[in-house]
Amino acid sequence: MATDPIRRIRHKEPDLMTMSDYYDILTELAALPPSHDAPYLTLCLDWRTHGSEPGRRLGFEQFRREGHAAIERFWPRGVAFDSVSTDVARIQTYLEEELDPAAHGAFIVACAVQGVFEAVPLVLPLDTALTLGPIPALSPLAQLVEDHVPYAVLVADQREAVLSLVVLAAFGPALEMTSSDYPRKQHTGGWSQRRYQTRADERVAAFARGIAEETATTLAATGARFFILAGDEIMTSALHEAFSADVAERLAATVRLDINATPDEILAATWPIAQAWEREQERADVEQVRALALGEGRATYGAETVLRALATGQAQRLIFNDDFRADGWADYSLPVYGVGAPPAEHPAGGAPDALDATELREEMIRLALLTGATIQIVHSAVPVDADTSPSERNAGDEMPRSEPARNLDELGGVGALLRYQITPE
Q1: Closest Cα partner for 321 from 388, 393, 399, 392?
Q2: Fewest CB atoms within 10 A around its CB: which of 149, 273, 294, 342?
Q3: Quick check: helix, strand or coil at residue 342?
Q4: How far is it, in rounded angstroms, from Cα 311 to Cα 30?
């Protein structure tokens, strides 16, 4: 038998925010009280510098233009004017004096009337846009988080293994293991060589079992949805044999990488696999909505029924296309919600001026977060092969859509899996 194959194990806390951290932020923002008299200002920001002018940030320039326009919208006075003016000034101070220059993006929610200012620096950029509304516009941050499902990468050879966590394209080691490198070769040829090879095979298998056990524990602790195995053929084959059934189910792919690969090299090799995994989850979710909605009824689709399911806590998973847009309204004091423009008469007998116009997907995301429903945002664009030229299109031609998006289009662009079914009496 080989001696203890692992000489050293180091558990490390990755120096990055976890997916739970981002969902906690989203949930806290969703729980903010709706603001009827003065809007929330939501800023999505691309904080990268301009390539040819390192000191220039185009996102900051766009914010200043849109911030000025937001103030002008409520000019010359009033609660909303004062609140938005204060918010724009506070955000500008934050960008000029507080936001890390190394950040690539930021997500900011502010409302002076409500005493709210929340800023989230990001390692990835967002498309710069300023939004005003009775609730924070959470869809850009929700989509960024949902598009970058956390995953792990295990890189191993016969002497070392490193398990790293990838969150929003940021890379951080979580577990490092070093083999005891036993047995050491002392003689060659004959029985000594055969015994050495046998013991070496035992060491590889034992090291693989140790890695597999530590990987199972670390995956459970980090919340990684899946992992990718990388290394030489000898070690990856041994690990395939050593993984438990539960861990093997979470293995998305195996690739060849050297143990000394840089984080950029690891991300380049694994990111396409992670994206393919996410696209498959989108396809499966849409197919499940279609099958259940037309079968046993544990799903629904269309804006009105999905909104109702979210408002009552019936929805378990919200699924919509990334280009889904629809108008909605809400009276947050009751609360009641509806689809379309605010009606002239209050549908619940309240005051018509209590009805706020909303963007429906923002309201759906808010309700999903408040009721513990998960969110799936389906990519509508078809992946383009970088090695082929795009086909020629005539002006006005529609862009091709992914199959899951087309299938969800047939259901109104939005659906939900349900926690329970309500059977009409």
Answers
A1: 399
A2: 294
A3: coil
A4: 14
